[in-house]
Amino acid sequence: MGSGKNTILITTALALGILVLTLGSGSAQEVSSPSCEEEICYLDIFDWADPRDPPPESGPYLPQDLTVRPGATAVWRNLGSDTHTVTSGKTPLEGGAPDEIFDSQLMFAGEEYSYRFDEEGSFRYYCGIHPWMTGQVIVQGIPFEAQVEIVEEEAPMPVEPVVEAPMPVEPVEEPIGPDIALPQDEPAAIEPEIEPEPNFDILPEVGEMPQVDQIDQDIPDPIPEEFVEESQDDDRVTTIALIVVGIVGIGVTVGILVMRKR
Asked: What is the number of structural domains in the chain?
């Protein structure tokens, strides 16, 4: 048991010694830390799995201390084969804890993590898996101008002119003065109807008909009543005679038929 405790104490002492040396070297380099004037600055991460081993020649981070301008973005690249983190704050080996300004979470080999520094100040960070790996970013100088997103305006769609159909124009009748006479259609000529002349040649010959001139002379106008009564009496006598003749003719015909049958 005693040997095991001694091993732990020795390992812890070595880690603290290496940490003191690392921090000392870092503090000595604060004045002459590399500076990046670009808006994007890169920091490479190297493996340092055991604090009993000497650190990489370039340190766990390259550069370990970096000075950037406000508005610059730091990009950490994991070039090792182990998993690391970039966690802001003091390492627990110094009695510190994360300050939650930035934290990359687990970064596997080949992965990257970026953070934009907008405010001036000194920002210490460490690896949450290997707390003896520490670094620092110093922000000072003239800040970069705020990035303005340039939005390209889309070219307006060409608008086709709308051609309206012309409205029908009604003809305007010019006023006609009193001295201008309108042309009038001439009325069609109406031919008088010609009545056919009476043809007396087609009348049946009943005795000798008097001439028209004689009729006009013989028949007075108006006809006397006496002449009308005499004419009516003659018509009655004629009618009775015709009836009698008809009866006699019927009787004779019947008699002839009876004689034939016998």
From this structure: 2
